[in-house]
Amino acid sequence: MALTLVALLTACGGSSSSSGGTTSGASPSATGPKNALVRCPSNTNTTAASPETGQIHLVVAGWASTPAEDALVKQGLQNFEKLHPNVTVTWTPIPGDYATKMRANVASGNVPDVFYLQPPMAQEYIPAGKLLNLSPYMARDHVSPSTYYPSLMQDFDCADGTVFGIPKDWNSLGLFYNKTLFQQAGLGDPSNWTWDDLKNAAQKLTKRGSSPANSVYGIALPADASRWGAFLFANGGQMVSADGKQALFNSQAGIQAAEFYTSFELNHTGVMPGDVGASWDGDAFGKQQVAMTLEGGWMIPFLAQNYPKVQYGIAPLPIGPSGKRGNLLYTNAWAAYSGTKYPGMAWELIKYMTGADYQTQVLHDGFALPTLTSLANDSYFQQNPGVKVLQDGAAYGQPDFYGVADTEIHNDVSNALQSIMLGKQSATDALNAAAQKVNTWIQQNVAP
Question: What is the pLDDT of residues 185-228, one digit of tens each?
């Protein structure tokens, strides 16, 4: 999806260490949110290198997105070259499994100078000392971590707040609803709905035919931890403990959230996308086989390209029994290799690609949400109120990342939700079994 597949910058990094000291600790004036889920490295640079002089070649790599978004990234890199005439930037995408291939590059020492850092990669590369410490650079250039949304910064900081990556763009979830089907059902604006309102609306919107393919359902909800988590947080629950060493999603709040989330499938007022022959929620929504779904901004270009006649709106996620909303935040960050020969210029590139000029261009081109809080009142949001709804998700969302056990949590929780939806287990049994699997994995793979 255009808004979640962001370009990844890389370059051929040398084997020499970056300029600056190699003792632990960061500049206290440029520390971000403390992230207990990521251990700080024992050694890291503590000073900022000046931009290098002479001819510099930075090779920039990443996975390919849509042609339009790739062109936008290339334009940003070309603009950077114009600002730094002594720098040549080469764009070299890495095809296939990016994280796996990057891990192989790190193992061989052939690491890019600058690259996109995914949250799971951060928990691996930060403790291993593979990333340039950005805190000294931020302190020197007066780039405060508070310039960016703290909830987005946290994934790329370590336990003492040292910054190793700066989020480039992001997304949250919104309630996409079909205005035509809403009007036919006599439903109004869902912006202030509660869980009960969502449940009642799904019943009114469901029109069952001779088969699922000939029916219209209230909502499409996949068996996916990366959707259900929003309901867990809205109900006051937690996915994992603060230190990342114990699953907490099987609490009473989690069980209640799972019972609500899966009730649509069990009551036949909602469907998993595969039930109606759709590849994912957006496809089912575009075909107007469902009236609502929970997705991010990537839905906007998808619908415009594939289902331009569908009239839809975007509302905040419904208010949970706790009286609060919940949401999930998805992001990646720019980072630099600790062994780059050009740490000063690598930082300049990161600073530009996360700065106001480039982020404004990305926003106005409709590709992603800006991580800079200063752009929250940009005129684009007044012109596109649905996108503003997604932007506001930063205020009540939490990162969809849960530390070293992130993969296990996502897989086991998603399997548990599917088991509940298929009627194989109760919410209590399914979540307890999933939590036991996660906790066993943590005990076997994470040091005390």
Answer: 999 999 999 999 999 999 999 998 888 778 999 999 999 999 99
Question: Residue 17 has which token pair?
Answer: 């260490």
What Cα–Cα distance (Å) separates residue 352 from each residue in 18, 35, 77, 121, 416? 20, 25, 9, 22, 43
CA distances from 33 to 82, 230, 342 (A): 34, 21, 27
Cβ atoms of 13 and 113 within 8 Å: the answer is: yes
Structural domains in the chain, CATH included, are: 28-170+330-396 (3.40.190.10), 174-328+400-445 (3.40.190.10)
* DSSP, res 117: E
* Joined tokens for residue 44: 């890291």
Which tens digits make up the pLDDT trace of 135-184?
Answer: 999 999 999 999 999 989 999 999 999 999 999 999 999 999 999 999 99
For helices 343-353 and 356-364, the axis angle rounded to 10 degrees is: 40
Tokens 């910064």 found at? 153
- CA–CA gap between residue 195 and residue 261 (Å, rounded): 10
CA angle 64, 66, 70 (to 5 degrees): 60
